[in-house]
Amino acid sequence: MTNTATLTAVGLGPGDPELITLKGLRALQMADVLFVPQSRDGDQSLALRIAEPWIDRARQTVVALPLPMTRDASQLRPAWRAAAETIVAELGADRQGAYLLLGDPLLYGTFVYLWRELTALQAPVAVRIIPGVTSFAAAAAAGGMPLAMSNERLIVVPASYETDAATLRRLLNDFETVVLMKAGAALPAIVAALEELDLLDHALYAERVGMPEELIARDLRALDPQRRPYLSLVIVRREDMP
């Protein structure tokens, strides 16, 4: 019988190590090699920071995969190909690996791009996926905001593409709740649009959910919109909040 290397994408959740699922934790602890995405500017890997309490450094190898923080496909595609090649080399014929990432692997996650490159390489690696708690679910719980009730509808969109008042008005006409992911640099435009729509009191802001530096705010006016991190979000609910 031929052994096969495996790679399990583990959604670690939003930041609290205790929000890793039991299945995800088991995959993390069973892996021989742990792969973590890391920005090329040298910042600490948040995925590694979350997983650290559960890692056995004496037994497990941790491999950082440097990835550029850009939308430029000419830079991203070679980086993803190099990451896939690193994974194949590290796993060899029969080792178990886990790719650790924030949130859920299939919701605006980095794993899909890596998966595509592994497929293109026809890599002899069996891929498995374990879902994780999403940042907006954790933010809603921390802020006491219902996401959807009864027959209400919810939409999740990338903030950088949905920040003008006309677009938000259209979305909120069609959906009771709008989740704006990765708000960061788009926050000034979001605040301006919500003010124009008289919806600032219907919004919840969250950053670094589940981490020690977590910030949950219902008063977006009090925030410095120029200094918010990329990993932040805004939930806008058309109905009054509790």
Give an overview of the whole structure.
The protein has 242 residues and is of the alpha/beta class. It folds into two domains: 126 residues, Cobalt-precorrin-4 Transmethylase, domain 1; 103 residues, 2-Layer Sandwich (Methyltransferase, Cobalt-precorrin-4 Transmethylase, Domain 2), CATH 3.30.950.10. Helix content is 30%, strand content 24%. The protein has seven helices and ten strands. The radius of gyration is 19 Å and the shape is elongated. 35% of the residues are buried.
Give a short overview.
The protein has 242 residues and is an alpha/beta fold. It has seven helices and ten strands.
Estimated share of beta-strand residues: 15-25%
Total number of strands = 10
Helix fraction, binned, reads 25-40%
How confident is the prediction overall: mean pLDDT? 90
Structural class: alpha/beta
State the domain count.
Answer: 2
Features of the shown structure:
24% strand; 5-stranded mixed sheet; 7 helices; alpha/beta; 242 residues; Cobalt-precorrin-4 Transmethylase, domain 1; 2 domains; elongated; Methyltransferase, Cobalt-precorrin-4 Transmethylase, Domain 2
What's the layout of helices and strands?
Layout: E1 5-11, H1 22-30, E2 33-39, H2 46-51, E3 61-67, H3 73-91, E4 96-101, H4 111-120, E5 125-130, H5 135-143, E6 154-158, H6 165-174, E7 177-181, H7 187-196, E8 203-207, E9 215-217, E10 232-237
Parallel strand pairs: 1-4, 1-5, 2-3, 2-4, 6-7
Antiparallel strand pairs: 7-10, 8-9, 8-10
